[in-house]
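Appendix B. One record, verbatim.
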Amino acid sequence: MTFTFRSVDPLKDGELLHSWVTHPKASFWMMQDAKPEDVERAYREIAADEHHHAYLGLRDGEPVFLMEKYDPAHRELVGLYEPRPGDVGMHFLVAPTDTPVHGFTRAVITAVMAHLFEDAAVRRVVVEPDVGNKAVHALNEAVGFVPEREIQKPEKRALLSFCTRERFAAATGVAV
């Protein structure tokens, strides 16, 4: 599967993102009760933040997932681990669907990781999913993430995990 990426436009994409982040399958996104204006505001804040960026993943020109990348030295994980040069944080959310395609989410996370590693400065991807999100732990492991430890974030208990470009390439066969 081939995906392309484009920056989120908070005004244009706000309604779509609202439908995704408030869907029952997006409970770990922690925006279940958000109003459309809350989602638009959140993504306007990301768009204005030099350390946090949001992208839509497109398949055949249609948005099918959301990816956020952030600098963990400045956002999300400040004070919770010792960041290294070349670390980038990542979140992703696959659009809800009534007709799931087997292997789709794995293809998405593989594309997200390959996209992040296209930047030669990125040496390691950092994630901090909820400890209870077993499905994403399995996906993370499939693309080369290694859990380090549980951490307490203000909003959740998280599993801090890392993936180097070498581990990603070994796990997926994708050259980066």
